[in-house]
Amino acid sequence: MKLLHLSDLHLGIRLCGYSMIDDQKFILNHILTLCDEEHPDAVLIAGDVYDRPFPPIEAISLFGEFLSGLHARGIEVFVIGGNHDSVERLAFASDLIEGAGVHIAPPYNGSLTRYTVKDAYGEVDICLLPFSHLSELRRFFPEQKLATMQDAYAAILAAEPPATDRRTVLVCHPFVAGSMPSDSEDIFVGGLDVVGEDVFSGYDYVALGHIHSPQVLKNPALRYCGTPLAYSFSECGQQKSAVFVTLEEKGKAVVTLKPLSPMRPIKELRGAFSEVCNKDHAEAFGKDAYIRVTLTDEEDIPEALARLRAYYPYICSIRYDNRRTRETAAITMPTATKEKDPVALFSELYRLQNNAEMSEAQSAVLVDMVNEVFGGGV
Length: 378
Fold this sequence. Notes:
Layout: E1 2-6, E2 14-15, E3 18-19, H1 21-38, E4 42-46, H2 57-72, E5 76-80, H3 87-90, H4 94-97, E6 102-104, E7 113-119, E8 122-128, H5 134-137, H6 149-159, E9 167-172, E10 175-176, E11 194-195, E12 205-208, E13 215-216, E14 222-224, E15 241-247, E16 253-259, E17 266-271, H7 273-276, H8 279-285, E18 290-295, H9 304-309, E19 315-320, H10 323-326, H11 342-354, H12 360-374
Parallel strand pairs: 1-4, 4-5, 5-6, 8-9, 9-12, 10-11, 12-14, 17-18, 18-19
Antiparallel strand pairs: 1-15, 2-3, 7-8, 13-14, 15-16
Helix pairs in contact: 1-2
């Protein structure tokens, strides 16, 4: 049995104010093309279908189109909600669409949502555990003290252990200890939400969602497939992939990664303003990427973002890397004395802030401003 493991689609997300709906439509169509090549029996979507509980209409429409595309190919779909979804809203009318082979888990109600499918090797249990807050899970285990998400997962999975005589797949959305998050997740490292690998023993494959960077944990049966697109600059340069998992006899799962190529990649651009702010450089670099620019100029460039946007229409932000920004020590404000006129006082402050002296032109402008404010000749 071949499964396609996806998660964290975050449909409707915006990056630095830019809607990524066209990027997401492009990548979902890419995934459908891979399905035509790989012919998976089922698709597992491990949470965070949408970027927020009340997604925009275009995001809902896009997910509907994706499900229709999978259905047209005869592929069953198993979906759970993540911490960005409204699990209740995501599961709306799920009973009706069950007949179309689209299985969306309702909120956890005291037991796992379980489906059993068959292949040449026998039966496979697919267990769905959508995201729930710890406070919501406590009421299902009144006799146990659930102080952490580790306690909750241990209680949930111990109550319904995987069968020993057939293969079992779990789809869930936790933060597993040892995984490496990126900047685009809502993660509190070292907090009560961390779940240890030990609670997942006995499963042939655990399709994890929540962490955006693709990674395998110490137990090779546990895998984060990662997002299909990069959603932060901390993911710049990551190779995103579609994860195909072939279950053979019990205990044997073969994973194949198929690269995903975005419509617009996320890139970092670095250099002096005069170097990067020109048409030839933009064409060579790839002007249609989502870009964060690091300028190495010692002086701030007036209206740099607006001027760069003429060449890089999807520029997200700029920052500086120079002597001033590398100086991390706290600045002590210069002390005003009778011996220090306003020009000398401001010059000292400038030197402390920028780790450099003012230029002659800057000094001339400062003198003119001080004379205008205070009068007289400085």
